[in-house]
Amino acid sequence: MSIEVKVPQLPESVTDATLVSWNKKPGDSVTRDENLVDLETDKVVLEVPAPSNGVIKELRVGNGATVTSGQVLAILEAADGAAVAVRSVASVTEAKSAPEAKPAATGSSGKLAPAAKRMVEEHQLDAGAIAGSGRDGRISKGDVIQHISKDAAPAAKAAPKSAPAVQLPAAAGARGEQRVAMTRLRARIAERLVQAQATAAMLTTFNEVDLTAVNEIRARYKDKFEKQFGVKLGFTSFFIKAAIEALRKFPAVNASIDGNDVVYHEYYDIGVAVSTDRGLMVPVLRNAENMSFAELESAVGNSAKKARDGSITLEELTGGTFTITNGGVFGSLMSTPILNPPQVAILGMHKIQDRPMVVDGEIKVRPMMYLALTYDHRIVDGRESVQFLVAIKDALEDPARLLLQL
Fold this sequence. Notes:
Blueprint: E1 2-6, E2 17-22, E3 29-30, E4 35-40, E5 45-49, E6 54-59, E7 66-67, E8 72-78, H1 81-97, H2 114-122, H3 141-150, H4 152-158, H5 184-199, E9 202-210, H6 212-229, H7 236-249, E10 255-258, E11 261-264, E12 270-272, E13 274-276, E14 279-281, E15 284-285, H8 293-309, E16 322-326, E17 345-349, E18 353-359, E19 362-376, H9 382-397, H10 400-404
Helix pairs in contact: 2-3, 7-8, 7-9
């Protein structure tokens, strides 16, 4: 019996998706719920599972095509257990007589990111031979490119003619270049950034915070904290807590714009920006005001992991009321973050750097961080923005305020 494999119902507000890559080809046997193909939307990568055991009879759509909900992607010839077993035996027989094939796009070194998986398949690489630099050995696109660069000549022979260009070391005096289409996520990011620049009256104000007190708390309790809650005590939870207390005092900063209306949110859904192989994503922590330090650290870690491995859902990336981004993890000392519409403000954290500061008339070395608040001047006044940053600074320099909500 033939079964149509269709594009699943796409998330609300998503009209279409791009077919990234097939994991199977015609004639391959599959098992129920095995991932057949990856579809990329503006935000997330969706997996299309096999609806039944069987054999792929026909692929209706090729890699890189744009697809919509309900569109037929492939035809699967359903099979009972015996038929599948026969196919498996035949496959083994064929494999023995066929030339040695490259391993599938999963290796012992860790799971492949979607972009890395695509490159491994296109260049017929052995994923098990690639060293992953990500968490738990996860292989990124950069890891694949570095692997290819180590052995450019063999890789060039193995790569199919249709594979996109990969930047390899150029010969002396060569002037190489490559042209690669934007991913859907990168195109969406570009669109939203241009939209923010064109529609909002963006302005950025700065301050600096002395993190001595936070460092002392982390040093004193980090071991007990991790032992009790199973998660490390980082800086992010302190900044989220401090931001929420500042947002309580200045509700305009927690607002959003809906047409000609200003929506003042009485809850705090905090977005925390995460850098991934596919681009910047902003998972949202719902009702962050009700979370403990441990819950915040755990939620941030889990959301970042899901964003990087491609398992995060569109619902987890939408609906925030305020965003925090940390360029300090990459060494940024100061920057002006861009708004995440329809939000009216975004907080930028930066690198912690020891600097000489005057404290009680004496010069002392302190761990300092520059803070940046970009805000929509149509809604947030300069006074509010400055006082908002001062409130965050006060809370972090005297963390007891976070407990007492002062």
